[in-house]
Amino acid sequence: MSAHNALADVSGAHPEADQMAVARKAFERGDYSTALEIWGPLAHAGVAQAQAYIGACFVEGWGIERDFALAARWLTLAADAGDPDGQRNLAALYFRGDGVNQDYKRAASLYRRAAEAGDGPAQDMLSWMLLEGEVIVHDYAEARKWALAAAEQNIASSMTRLGMIYHNALRVERDPGFAAHWWRRGAERGDADGQAMLGAACYLGAGVERDPRQAMVWLLRARAGESKLASQFLNAVRSMLTEAEITEAEQRAASPLPEPSP
Questions:
Q1: CA atoms within 13 A on the CB side of 262
Q2: What's residue 261's pLDDT?
Q3: 19 belongs to a structural domain
Q4: Residue at 206 is within a domain
Q5: Is residue 198 within 8 Å of residue 187, measured between CB atoms?
Q6: In Å, how far are 39, 156, 196, 209 from 163, measured between CA atoms?
Q7: 3-state DSSP: the chain helix, strand, coil percent, rounded to 5?
Q8: Residue ranges in the chain modelled with pLDDT below 50
Q9: What is the domain count for the chain?
Q10: I want to staple 42 with a disulfide (CB 3.0 to 4.6 A). Which of 50, 62, 80, 235 is the partner?
Q11: Of 41, 23, 119, 130, which Cα lies nearest the Cα of 79?
Q12: Backbone φ/ψ region at 209: left (φ over 0), alpha (ψ -120 to 50), beta
């Protein structure tokens, strides 16, 4: 769970907004103790967002010792009060069984509540659960709906998932070009699986012009990002290139990502 995912932007609509803003700035510069000193009294006073932040700190061990049981208590208070951060982070505890009994249905319900409130990471996770169908029933149309919602919030993994939906024709017509479009968007934003699939598309000429050198660049980036999808294509692409081309691809793969396309 990243700090970005755990902590949402602070709204100025409540009297506590100034204190919350100070705490957020302290947190962002790594001054967890100051943030916790501010969030603590607010959380005890019933401010749901502060409760969610305290819970996230207990989950991650930010400024305090990690304690999943205490995290669950604070996140439950926040979630029950309707805070999307609290709902999403509590869902993660139920999904993993950290500090609570593992309960996939409860996790899915909490992710859905946060997703419906507009929380991008929750939309992304709900989309994944609906697509995989391992812990809740498959619903490809709903999976695409939530992936699109998350993609609109610039979440790269959902962009990659949309590419897979169009590649595999999951309740949509198969569209290699649209699949490659979404993989490129995810790849340019750093999603390793998106980079692997874009590399595969460049290698096969599926939805994009065939380009083994560009394929190698994306596959190398995907491997560096620990995508398990990259290995099945790397050797085949490598065999198509000269040593000089491979060296060039390695140099390009180590360079910063291109400016993301819209």
A1: 0
A2: 78
A3: no
A4: yes
A5: yes
A6: 40, 11, 12, 17
A7: 65, 0, 35
A8: 2-6, 8-13
A9: 1
A10: 50
A11: 119
A12: beta
**Residue 9 CB neighbours (<10 A):** 6
Q: What's this model's pTM, rounded to 2 decimal places?
A: 0.89
Return the pLDDT at 32.
Answer: 96
Which phi and psi angles does 59 have, rounded to 5°?
Answer: -65, -45
Which residues, including other chains, have CB under 8 Å from residue 212's CB and lie 6 or more apart?
A: 202, 203, 237, 240, 241, 245
> CA 55, CA 74: separation in Å to the nearest integer?
5
Closest Cα partner for 233 from 195, 208, 203, 189?
A: 203
Burial of 2 (0-12, 13-18, 19+ CB in 10 A): exposed
Placement of tokens 């103790």 in the chain:
33
Q: Looking at the domain assignment, is residue 183 inside a domain? A: yes
Task: Specify the amino acid at residue 110.
Answer: L
46: left (phi over 0), alpha (psi -120 to 50) or beta: left
In a domain, 48, yes or no: no
Q: What is the DSSP code (8-state) at residue 114?
A: H
What residue numbers bound the domain in which 251 lies? Answer: 177-262
Residue 110 to residue 112: CA distance in whole angstroms: 5
